[in-house]
């Protein structure tokens, strides 16, 4: 079972870094205020305000900054400022040996799926959730509160309205997943995670419909779907299409491959590149219940605080 970092407490110090795209201190000012309102002290990493083309500084700077925050015992959580692209470029330069002896929460989504999967592969929980650059997006209040609850070790369960493609059933297993394109990118790398017996969750943004199909073919052919305990499908925002339409929605594409197997499936789950991006704890054991009335996802193992 993956290890769970200790819940945050008022007075703890947390860091914001850029492992992918650049972000300025001015863009993060509102997020710092939110974190301070939670009773936390905030340290901005060297990569904040750094700039190298699209990135928050060159690879060497971003990896050094993240490494320093990993190794500092006074930093109790690391929030990645934003996604974009860049984390796969530096993940192999990061040494998690000190982190293993003093684990802390690491949170983000999208490109940060790289860290979520890598940490799970190493046996540690992490948080898939809203990032500081998006803390004040309209309609994101519930997502932000879910992140706070995850960081502070408070209990949470999610209920989702029925969807016509849902497959009823009950599944138990560790949560894993994130951005579909990143999951494919990580296949066959040291950050790749086994899916057997786990509840996989998926989301993506601005992908071509044929590309979503191609990635689902890859997941299926590589055996990633075969032994799942369950599947949770989140937002597939702003899908793109060709001049000749592909002919299926993202949900219909996923259903083409999911229906080959018997595990329960929940569509329309509030995760991904929308304001309702609820926090999920990667590696935490959960129960997915899907019936005709609703779908429900809840954690079933105690947290580090004994909840």
Structural class: alpha/beta
Q: How many DSSP H or I helices?
A: 9
List the domain count as a whole number: 2
Tell me the CATH architecture of the largest domain. Answer: 3-Layer(bba) Sandwich
The overall average pLDDT, rounded, is 96
CATH topology of the largest domain: Glucose Oxidase, domain 1
End-to-end gap: 16 Å
Q: Mind telling me the C-alpha Rg?
A: 18 Å
Shape: globular
Keywords: Carboxypeptidase, Hydrolase, Protease, Serine protease
Family: Belongs to the peptidase S66 family.
InterPro entries: Carboxypeptidase_A_C_sf (IPR027461), Class_I_gatase-like (IPR029062), LdcA_N (IPR027478), Peptidase_S66_N (IPR040449), Peptidase_S66C (IPR040921), S66_fam (IPR003507)
Pfam family, one: Peptidase_S66
List the helices and strands and how they pair.
Elements: E1 13-17, H1 29-37, E2 41-44, H2 59-71, E3 75-80, H3 87-90, H4 97-101, E4 105-108, H5 113-122, E5 126-128, H6 141-151, E6 157-160, E7 169-179, H7 180-186, E8 199-205, H8 209-221, E9 230-237, H9 250-258, E10 265-266, E11 280-282, E12 285-290, E13 295-299
Parallel strand pairs: 1-2, 1-3, 3-4, 4-5, 7-8, 8-9, 9-10
Antiparallel strand pairs: 5-11, 6-13, 7-12, 12-13
Helix pairs in contact: 8-9
What structural keywords apply?
307 residues, alpha/beta, Rossmann fold, Glucose Oxidase, domain 1, 2 domains, seven-stranded mixed sheet, six-stranded mixed sheet, 9 helices, 13 strands, globular, disordered C terminus
Summary?
This protein has 2 domains: 13-140, Murein tetrapeptidase LD-carboxypeptidase, N-terminal domain (Rossmann fold); 158-299, 3-Layer(bba) Sandwich (Glucose Oxidase, domain 1).
């Amino acid at each position: 079972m993956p290890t769970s970092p200790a819940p945050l407490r008022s007075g703890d110090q947390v860091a914001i870094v850029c492992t992918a795209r650049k972000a300025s201190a001015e863009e993060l000012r509102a997020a710092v205020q939110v974190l301070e309102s939670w009773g936390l002290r905030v340290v901005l990493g060297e990569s904040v305000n750094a700039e190298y083309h699209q990135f928050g500084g060159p690879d060497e700077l971003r990896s050094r900054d993240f490494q320093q925050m990993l190794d500092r015992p006074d930093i109790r959580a690391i929030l990645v400022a934003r996604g974009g692209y860049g984390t796969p470029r530096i993940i192999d330069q990061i040494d998690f040996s000190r982190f293993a002896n003093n684990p802390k929460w690491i949170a983000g989504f999208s490109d940060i799926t790289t860290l979520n999967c890598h940490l799970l592969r190493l046996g540690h929980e992490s948080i898939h959730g809203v990032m500081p650059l998006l803390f004040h997006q309209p309609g994101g209040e519930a997502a932000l509160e879910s992140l706070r609850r995850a960081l502070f070790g408070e209990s949470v369960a999610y209920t989702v309205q029925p969807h016509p493609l849902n497959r009823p059933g009950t599944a138990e297993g560790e949560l894993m997943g994130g951005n579909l394109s990143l999951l494919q990118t990580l296949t066959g790398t040291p950050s790749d995670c086994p899916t057997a017996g786990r509840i996989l969750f998926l989301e993506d943004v601005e992908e071509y419909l044929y590309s979503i199909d191609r990635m689902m073919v890859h997941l299926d052919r590589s055996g990633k779907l075969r032994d799942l305990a369950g599947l949770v499908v989140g937002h597939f925002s702003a899908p793109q299409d060709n001049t000749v339409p592909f002919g299926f929605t993202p949900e219909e594409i996923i259903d083409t491959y999911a229906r080959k197997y018997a595990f329960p499936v929940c569509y329309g789950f509030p995760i991904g590149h929308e304001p309702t991006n609820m926090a999920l704890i990667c590696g935490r054991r959960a129960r997915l219940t899907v019936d005709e009335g609703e779908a429900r996802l809840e954690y079933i193992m105690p947290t580090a605080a004994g909840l």
